[in-house]
User: What shape does this take?
Amino acid sequence: MPEGQRAYVIGDIHGRLDLFEELIEAVERDDLESGPAATMVILLGDLVDRGPDSAGVIDRARRWQSARSVRILAGNHEEMFLQAFTSVTMLRHFLKHGGRETVLSYGVDPHLYNCASLEELQTIMERHVPEADLEFIRSFEEYMTLGDYAFVHAGINPEVPLAEQTRQDLLWIRDPFLRFAGQHSHIIVHGHTIVEEVDERDNRIGIDTGAYRSGRLTALVLEGDQRRYLQTVQTDAGVDVANLAVAA
Assistant: This one.
């Protein structure tokens, strides 16, 4: 990382506002305790779908961004959400992959949802989802770099320079990227593919620990040549914060 800079990189939130709120508090506390730095927060996309409160996550991310430097990357679930308003085919795909929970989080009555045709549901969504939320989601970036790291939702095509990547690959790629063992121009920090534990490789770091189903939301902390991790973890008693071992 560039001298004097610190980054907190957060994996796929997927509507888990409870874990996100606690992780925000943990990041703010950690940043204060770690001393002065030019601090940036990076959200790796997939804020919405599957978990119970996508609307709340969008609102909280926007408020956090108004208070500090928060960069937000687009995920494939944001792309499905946006396209679902104009494409019945994409709406059907969106609903199959967690979109129902997103729609209901905007106050849509479950009975009304269940009785609606796809075309009717598009009209219902237009009434319930604020245009400000859609504009906010449209503002999400495709990728960014900082020091020796590049940050992206899904990954990159290993055969293509970073600046020439397609949006499709940046938001959706899996196997060609995950199987590649060679070096990239940067260490790629990504989400999109769920892992039991943080997946650190020589050429990439995967931090999507499946918050919506595992109850664990992960933040990678980067400063100088050090890496460490913060996690919020759902327990029977609530949400705990864990500091994971520093990586060499």
